[in-house]
Design a protein that fits this description.
Layout: E1 4-7, H1 17-32, E2 38-41, H2 57-71, E3 75-78, H3 89-94, E4 98-99, E5 103-108, E6 111-116, H4 126-135, H5 139-146, H6 149-168, H7 172-175, H8 179-189, E7 193-196, E8 203-209, E9 212-218, E10 225-231, E11 236-242
Parallel strand pairs: 1-2, 2-3, 3-4, 6-7, 7-9
Antiparallel strand pairs: 1-10, 5-6, 8-9, 10-11
Length: 244
Amino acid sequence: MKQSYFIADLHLTENRPDITAAFFDFLDSKIINDDVDALYILGDFFEVWVGDDYQTDLSKSVAARLSQVSESGTEVFFIHGNRDFIMREDYAKSASMTLLPEQVVIDLYGTPTVILHGDEMCTQDIEYQKFRKKSRGWWWPKLMLAMPLWYRKKIARNAREKSKQSQAGKALEILDVTEDAVLAMFEKHQVTNMIHGHTHRPNVHHYKQNGKTLTRTVLGDWYEQGSYLRATPEQQKLVHTPFK
Protein backbone atom coordinates (compact mmCIF):
# COMPACT_ATOMS: atom_id res chain seq x y z
CA MET A 1 0.00 0.00 0.00
CA LYS A 2 1.26 3.48 -0.85
CA GLN A 3 1.64 5.53 2.31
CA SER A 4 3.76 8.32 3.77
CA TYR A 5 4.14 9.59 7.32
CA PHE A 6 4.70 13.10 8.66
CA ILE A 7 5.97 14.00 12.14
CA ALA A 8 7.24 17.15 13.88
CA ASP A 9 8.09 18.60 17.27
CA LEU A 10 9.46 15.52 19.00
CA HIS A 11 12.00 17.70 20.85
CA LEU A 12 14.24 14.70 21.46
CA THR A 13 16.45 15.15 24.50
CA GLU A 14 18.35 12.99 26.98
CA ASN A 15 16.00 14.27 29.68
CA ARG A 16 12.99 12.58 28.05
CA PRO A 17 13.92 8.97 27.25
CA ASP A 18 10.20 8.16 27.03
CA ILE A 19 9.89 10.29 23.88
CA THR A 20 12.85 8.55 22.28
CA ALA A 21 11.40 5.14 23.19
CA ALA A 22 8.03 6.12 21.71
CA PHE A 23 9.73 7.31 18.52
CA PHE A 24 11.68 4.08 18.13
CA ASP A 25 8.51 2.09 18.73
CA PHE A 26 6.79 4.18 16.06
CA LEU A 27 9.58 3.37 13.60
CA ASP A 28 9.38 -0.34 14.38
CA SER A 29 5.60 -0.62 14.27
CA LYS A 30 4.72 1.81 11.48
CA ILE A 31 7.74 2.31 9.26
CA ILE A 32 10.48 -0.33 9.23
CA ASN A 33 8.25 -3.40 9.09
CA ASP A 34 5.71 -1.93 6.68
CA ASP A 35 5.62 -0.77 3.07
CA VAL A 36 6.14 3.00 3.47
CA ASP A 37 7.21 5.38 0.73
CA ALA A 38 8.52 8.25 2.83
CA LEU A 39 8.94 9.65 6.33
CA TYR A 40 8.92 13.45 6.55
CA ILE A 41 10.30 15.10 9.70
CA LEU A 42 9.11 18.71 9.78
CA GLY A 43 11.41 20.31 12.29
CA ASP A 44 12.11 20.56 16.01
CA PHE A 45 13.15 16.94 15.87
CA PHE A 46 15.69 17.62 18.62
CA GLU A 47 15.18 19.93 21.57
CA VAL A 48 18.37 21.74 20.67
CA TRP A 49 21.08 21.38 18.03
CA VAL A 50 24.40 23.19 18.48
CA GLY A 51 26.22 21.69 15.52
CA ASP A 52 26.91 18.44 13.73
CA ASP A 53 30.25 18.21 15.52
CA TYR A 54 28.47 17.64 18.85
CA GLN A 55 27.38 14.01 18.86
CA THR A 56 25.79 12.28 21.83
CA ASP A 57 24.57 8.75 22.49
CA LEU A 58 21.07 10.04 21.68
CA SER A 59 21.95 11.65 18.35
CA LYS A 60 23.99 8.59 17.33
CA SER A 61 21.23 6.14 18.22
CA VAL A 62 18.65 8.23 16.35
CA ALA A 63 20.89 8.37 13.28
CA ALA A 64 21.33 4.60 13.39
CA ARG A 65 17.58 3.99 13.59
CA LEU A 66 16.84 6.39 10.75
CA SER A 67 19.46 4.63 8.66
CA GLN A 68 17.52 1.42 9.31
CA VAL A 69 14.42 3.15 7.98
CA SER A 70 16.26 4.12 4.82
CA GLU A 71 17.63 0.61 4.40
CA SER A 72 14.09 -0.77 4.69
CA GLY A 73 13.18 1.18 1.56
CA THR A 74 11.57 4.28 3.09
CA GLU A 75 13.00 7.66 2.08
CA VAL A 76 13.59 10.01 5.02
CA PHE A 77 13.27 13.78 4.54
CA PHE A 78 13.98 16.58 7.02
CA ILE A 79 12.92 20.23 7.21
CA HIS A 80 14.60 22.43 9.80
CA GLY A 81 12.66 23.78 12.75
CA ASN A 82 13.43 26.67 15.07
CA ARG A 83 15.32 24.34 17.45
CA ASP A 84 17.49 22.46 14.96
CA PHE A 85 17.96 24.91 12.07
CA ILE A 86 21.77 24.60 12.07
CA MET A 87 21.71 20.87 11.42
CA ARG A 88 23.86 20.26 8.34
CA GLU A 89 24.70 17.58 5.81
CA ASP A 90 27.15 15.70 8.05
CA TYR A 91 24.43 14.55 10.43
CA ALA A 92 21.88 14.14 7.67
CA LYS A 93 24.26 11.81 5.86
CA SER A 94 24.90 9.78 9.02
CA ALA A 95 21.11 9.39 9.43
CA SER A 96 20.55 8.63 5.73
CA MET A 97 18.07 11.47 5.38
CA THR A 98 17.68 14.25 2.83
CA LEU A 99 17.57 17.90 3.92
CA LEU A 100 14.79 19.89 2.24
CA PRO A 101 14.27 23.66 1.86
CA GLU A 102 12.27 25.32 4.64
CA GLN A 103 9.24 25.37 2.32
CA VAL A 104 8.83 22.78 -0.40
CA VAL A 105 5.98 21.48 -2.54
CA ILE A 106 5.75 17.71 -2.85
CA ASP A 107 3.49 15.52 -4.96
CA LEU A 108 1.48 13.71 -2.28
CA TYR A 109 -0.16 10.96 -4.31
CA GLY A 110 -1.41 13.40 -6.94
CA THR A 111 -2.07 16.33 -4.57
CA PRO A 112 0.51 19.15 -4.68
CA THR A 113 1.24 19.83 -1.00
CA VAL A 114 3.41 22.46 0.64
CA ILE A 115 5.25 21.19 3.73
CA LEU A 116 7.13 23.34 6.24
CA HIS A 117 7.87 23.69 9.94
CA GLY A 118 5.44 26.60 10.17
CA ASP A 119 7.11 29.16 12.41
CA GLU A 120 7.32 31.75 9.61
CA MET A 121 3.50 31.98 9.68
CA CYS A 122 3.44 33.15 13.32
CA THR A 123 3.66 36.74 12.14
CA GLN A 124 2.15 38.33 15.27
CA ASP A 125 5.25 37.34 17.26
CA ILE A 126 7.34 40.28 16.05
CA GLU A 127 10.22 39.59 18.45
CA TYR A 128 10.62 36.03 17.25
CA GLN A 129 10.29 36.92 13.57
CA LYS A 130 13.17 39.39 13.90
CA PHE A 131 15.33 36.64 15.37
CA ARG A 132 14.20 34.18 12.74
CA LYS A 133 15.16 36.52 9.91
CA LYS A 134 18.61 37.00 11.40
CA SER A 135 19.24 33.37 12.29
CA ARG A 136 18.24 32.06 8.85
CA GLY A 137 20.59 34.45 7.07
CA TRP A 138 23.86 33.27 5.57
CA TRP A 139 26.16 34.90 8.15
CA TRP A 140 24.57 34.04 11.52
CA PRO A 141 24.75 30.21 11.25
CA LYS A 142 28.25 30.49 9.81
CA LEU A 143 29.32 32.65 12.73
CA MET A 144 27.69 30.34 15.26
CA LEU A 145 29.31 27.20 13.87
CA ALA A 146 32.72 28.89 13.91
CA MET A 147 32.49 29.36 17.69
CA PRO A 148 33.87 26.82 20.16
CA LEU A 149 31.48 24.03 21.09
CA TRP A 150 31.37 25.01 24.77
CA TYR A 151 30.29 28.52 23.81
CA ARG A 152 27.59 27.30 21.44
CA LYS A 153 26.19 25.08 24.21
CA LYS A 154 26.11 28.07 26.56
CA ILE A 155 24.30 30.18 23.96
CA ALA A 156 21.77 27.39 23.41
CA ARG A 157 21.04 27.11 27.15
CA ASN A 158 20.55 30.86 27.43
CA ALA A 159 18.36 30.93 24.32
CA ARG A 160 16.08 28.18 25.65
CA GLU A 161 15.64 30.01 28.95
CA LYS A 162 14.96 33.29 27.19
CA SER A 163 12.44 31.58 24.92
CA LYS A 164 10.56 30.11 27.89
CA GLN A 165 10.36 33.50 29.57
CA SER A 166 9.26 35.20 26.37
CA GLN A 167 6.51 32.69 25.61
CA ALA A 168 5.22 32.77 29.18
CA GLY A 169 4.34 36.43 28.78
CA LYS A 170 2.60 36.15 25.41
CA ALA A 171 -1.00 35.36 24.57
CA LEU A 172 -1.55 32.02 22.85
CA GLU A 173 -2.88 33.81 19.77
CA ILE A 174 0.48 35.55 19.28
CA LEU A 175 2.28 32.20 19.28
CA ASP A 176 -0.06 30.72 16.67
CA VAL A 177 -0.12 31.20 12.91
CA THR A 178 -2.20 34.01 11.43
CA GLU A 179 -4.85 33.39 8.81
CA ASP A 180 -3.35 36.04 6.52
CA ALA A 181 0.02 34.29 6.61
CA VAL A 182 -1.59 30.91 6.00
CA LEU A 183 -3.56 32.12 2.98
CA ALA A 184 -0.48 33.89 1.65
CA MET A 185 1.46 30.61 1.91
CA PHE A 186 -1.22 28.80 -0.08
CA GLU A 187 -1.17 31.56 -2.66
CA LYS A 188 2.61 31.65 -2.88
CA HIS A 189 2.89 27.95 -3.70
CA GLN A 190 -0.39 27.65 -5.63
CA VAL A 191 -1.53 24.56 -3.71
CA THR A 192 -4.65 23.52 -1.82
CA ASN A 193 -2.96 21.29 0.77
CA MET A 194 -0.51 22.21 3.55
CA ILE A 195 1.18 20.23 6.35
CA HIS A 196 3.22 21.82 9.16
CA GLY A 197 4.10 21.65 12.83
CA HIS A 198 5.56 24.17 15.31
CA THR A 199 2.40 25.37 17.09
CA HIS A 200 1.77 22.11 19.01
CA ARG A 201 -1.93 22.45 18.17
CA PRO A 202 -2.81 19.37 16.11
CA ASN A 203 -5.86 19.91 13.97
CA VAL A 204 -7.17 19.99 10.42
CA HIS A 205 -8.32 23.42 9.20
CA HIS A 206 -10.29 24.26 6.07
CA TYR A 207 -10.51 27.57 4.21
CA LYS A 208 -12.25 28.91 1.14
CA GLN A 209 -10.27 31.01 -1.32
CA ASN A 210 -11.05 31.85 -4.93
CA GLY A 211 -13.69 29.14 -5.00
CA LYS A 212 -11.28 26.46 -3.80
CA THR A 213 -11.22 24.48 -0.55
CA LEU A 214 -7.85 24.67 1.18
CA THR A 215 -6.75 22.15 3.81
CA ARG A 216 -4.10 22.82 6.47
CA THR A 217 -3.03 19.95 8.72
CA VAL A 218 -1.13 20.81 11.90
CA LEU A 219 0.99 18.04 13.41
CA GLY A 220 1.09 17.52 17.16
CA ASP A 221 4.06 17.50 19.50
CA TRP A 222 5.38 14.40 21.28
CA TYR A 223 5.43 15.60 24.88
CA GLU A 224 2.68 13.24 26.06
CA GLN A 225 1.85 11.17 22.99
CA GLY A 226 3.08 10.06 19.64
CA SER A 227 1.53 12.22 16.95
CA TYR A 228 1.73 11.67 13.21
CA LEU A 229 -0.07 12.12 9.94
CA ARG A 230 -0.53 9.08 7.73
CA ALA A 231 -1.19 9.90 4.11
CA THR A 232 -2.37 7.49 1.42
CA PRO A 233 -3.78 8.14 -2.06
CA GLU A 234 -7.25 7.98 -0.49
CA GLN A 235 -6.93 10.07 2.67
CA GLN A 236 -4.86 11.92 5.26
CA LYS A 237 -5.37 10.95 8.90
CA LEU A 238 -3.98 12.50 12.07
CA VAL A 239 -3.22 9.90 14.74
CA HIS A 240 -2.31 10.42 18.40
CA THR A 241 -0.99 7.52 20.46
CA PRO A 242 -0.48 8.00 24.25
CA PHE A 243 2.90 6.83 25.55
CA LYS A 244 2.94 3.39 27.08
